[in-house]
Amino acid sequence: MKKTLKNDHYTYRVTWLEEDNEHVGLCAEFPSLSWLAPTPEGALRGIRQLVAEVLIDMKRHKEKIPEPIASHQFSGKFVVRVPPEVHLELTLKAAEAGVSLNRLANYKLTHNGK
Question: What is the CA radius of gyration of the chain?
Fold first, then answer.
């Protein structure tokens, strides 16, 4: 049975950086860290190794270790503050569409504002 590494549950992303002509590996829980590599696989491998090393250092110095985002429990609710005129506009659009403001906001968030 494979032993799970302490860095396995974090959220990683690899993207292309045109200005550097390389791929960059990122970790959402450690936004100050990144790893450049010529291949996506190298960028992922590099950022995962870097996170593992940082975790060892944090543990050694008794620093608080970030909890992986995937370990969080999400309620499905969050509050968004908007200017009163935007609130009015959205309320009118929801009424005209015959839906609740919540349903309209949910639709706009999940369909990129369209």
Answer: 21
